[in-house]
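Incident review: delayed structure delivery

Summary: a single-chain prediction request sat in the queue longer than the usual turnaround. Root cause was a stuck worker, restarted by the on-call engineer. No data loss occurred. The affected request and its eventual output are reproduced below so the record is complete for anyone auditing the incident later.

Affected input:
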Amino acid sequence: MSTIVTGIEQEWSLDEHRRELVGYCYRMLGSAFDAEDAVQETMVRAWRARDRFEGRSTLRSWLYRIATNVCMDTLSSRNRRARPMDMSTSAWQPVEASLAARQPEESWMEPILDAQVLPVVADPADVAVGRESIRLAFVAALQHLPPRQRAVLILRDVLRWKADEVATLLETSTASVNSALQRARATLDTRGATSEEAYDPLDEAQRELLAQYVEAFESYDVDRFVALLHQDATQNMPPYEMWLEGPEAIGAWMLGVGIGCRGSRLLPTVANGAPAFAQYRASGPDGRHEPWALQVVEVADGQVMAITSFLDTRLFALLGLPAHPDG
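Output delivered after worker restart:
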């Protein structure tokens, strides 16, 4: 399959579209693995249908039509991906039982690195929109939309396609597209998808907060760590159903069930439009650090508002994260 895809990219220069297609499929599917598979399938279908591409639309819009159909096929065959907070409206109690329930990996939303889906060179305003549109809360809210509404909202509000262009892609009317967009926006308004402040790597206050976060976590100074948390801060760890709320509960978990994270190393990155850290936990008698989780950290009002630790270590290879903290 890789040979086929390489052949397509050489003939049509499709590689320039891959990053944005991964971003589109990720927003549609809520999964980095599914997004990569969808783009691969898009390239294969494009290759097989190359003789039917007549040039009446741009290659880009033709690929988006194929990618949309691939995503629709995927969504028709599986349940909506979710976050632990979608499983229960209240935080987990008691903390000691927090690892008692888990769901298969394919039940959960997955993270994506900004570098994999956002353009390398872009207008700052476009970068800001791109970051907001891959925030965990926003992507989670998208999963509540019917697939066609989801596609319409992403194409219109994120990618800024015109209504008639979306209508052509979906083989429907402009009026139908506008109606679907209104319904999709109304649903997102009820989901509270944009509660945290935007991440700005050049913001000195945010950099200082994140430096303190790393120092406190790596030294496992729990008192210092929880002092960085907002009073309504949450923590969740897919594939476990648990989620915690408040510094006291998070601190109790760190000193109890989560004590194995003592001695971890953190490497900074940026995922889902937010600061993130690849966490490596000490393993074995030699203290060697091995991949453990990708932490996505959301901030608000100068404090940590949410920590999502994705424990699927397959993500390290998929997202290009190093196998060890020292590279």
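Verification: The beta strands are 229-236, 243-245, 265-271, 274-283, 288-300, 303-310.
Action items: add queue-age alerting; document worker restart procedure.
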